[in-house]
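Appendix B, example 12.
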Amino acid sequence: MKRIAIFASGAGSNAAKIIEYFSTRNTIEVAVIVCNKPDAGVLKIAADHDIPTILIGKETFFRGDAYVAELKSLNIDFIVLAGFLWKIPQQLIAAYPNKMINIHPALLPKYGGKGMYGNKVHETVIANKEKESGITIHFVNEHFDEGEHIFQATCSIDETDDAATLAAKIHLLEHEHFPKVIESVVDEKN
C-alpha cells in the first residue's frame, strides 16, 4: 500500500474527490492532509474521513526541515498538491524527487507562475479572450508551475462564460481526471 500526503490550502474539493476515489482502492491510501490554514475546509474533510492532519507553519516550512521528518515518519511515499498555495521549498522537493505532483487550473505554460491561482487564472483567461482552457497536472520543481507536464485536459470557453462558470468547468475536469492520474503516476513511480 502506497501512502500519499495531500497538501491543500482551501475548501478541499479536489482532496475530497481523491479521498473518495482511493477509499475503494487497495494499492494507495491518503495517509495525511497537510494544510497551512487553520480554517480551511479541507481540514473538516480530513476529520470526516478520519484522516490525520498536519497544520504547518511558515517558519518551519521555509526555514526549518519543511516537515520532511514528519512526512518520512508517516512513511509517505508520494505528495499531491491539491490547491496548495505556498511554493514548495527545495528541501521537500529533494526529499521527494519526481514523487510530487500539482494540478493547475489552466493549460500551462500559459497562465502559470506566482500569483496565478484560482479565479485570478480564470479572470485572466477570459480577459484574453481564449477559446479554451483546462487543467495541467505536472511534477513539482523549484519554480511555480514549471515542472514536467504529465496530463492536460481542455474545455471550451463560451462567450457567456465568466470566471465563475469557467471555474465550474475546470472543477469538473479536475475531479474527473486528477485521482486517475495520481493513481497512474504513483503506480509508475513505485
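DSSP finds seven helices and seven strands in the chain. The chain has a mean pLDDT of 96.
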